């Protein structure tokens, strides 16, 4: 895999062990869970064996599309600040 990255001029950042939430996708998952609960609170009351998986899938899709693009853009645009914070902390904990 490393060879492919190098041959395609993709820079791979080392992932600091003390910054597990540095990845903005973690925050997207959190936004999705919050939106799912907001739009479909009754899903919290349904047990796993009682769930209608088609309905659940559609609820997740609806919740995802209900997240404003601006929120996702903000997370993406925060990456330079996140990387700088990790650099300044020498790979240790950051507010992210």
From TrEMBL:
Gene3D superfamilies: Ribonuclease H-like superfamily/Ribonuclease H. It comes from the Eukaryota. Pfam families: DDE_3. Residues 2-38 form the Tc1-like transposase DDE domain. Signal peptide: none annotated. GO terms for molecular function: nucleic acid binding. This is Tc1-like transposase DDE domain-containing protein. It comes from Aspergillus sydowii CBS 593.65.
